[in-house]
């Protein structure tokens, strides 16, 4: 356990971590947090739009053209990953000692696997615009909404559930 906290302390004392936490620059923590939140909004919002359409909302809107959302969603996902890693470097002890961080990570992993299934199964089906959406698609859409809501909720709770802010 001592090595674990030594490693966290080393990250916290790195120049990049200190700059992220303590810099008065708008390019530091506030802007990175804003970009992370914006990217998460694009990822979760794009998924929600597709999920709600699969669940039967906006029946006049064809489903097939919504496949064009996926490149935007995957680009936003990578922005979310990079900014999330930066936020992790700013406060590694706060994250790694908080069980909620691991819950968020699991929800994101499940949501991404589910998104890939929707992309592969729904949008690769030649009958993608059938009037009667198969039950399996609806289950995928419902679980997608659940996983993204779980990830967002856990992410929001991170700011309020930590027990250790720094390793010392």
Describe the structure.
The protein is an all-alpha fold and 168 residues long. Helices cover 73% and strands 0% of the residues. It has 7 helices and no strands. It has helices spanning 2-12, 15-22, 29-54, 69-90, 92-96, 99-122, 135-161. Helix 3 packs antiparallel against helix 7 (135-161) and helix 6 runs antiparallel to helix 7 (135-161). The longest helix is centred in the C-terminal third of the chain and has 27 residues, at 135-161.
N→C terminal distance: 13 Å
State the helical fraction: over 70%
| Low-confidence sequence ranges | none
Q: Please, what is the average pLDDT?
A: 91
Q: Helical stretch count?
A: 7
How would you describe this structure in keywords?
single chain; 7 helices; 0% strand
Outline:
This protein has 7 helices and no strands. It has one domain. It is mainly α.
Set out the fold topology:
Layout: H1 2-12, H2 15-22, H3 29-54, H4 69-90, H5 92-96, H6 99-122, H7 135-161
Helix pairs in contact: 2-4, 3-4, 3-7, 6-7
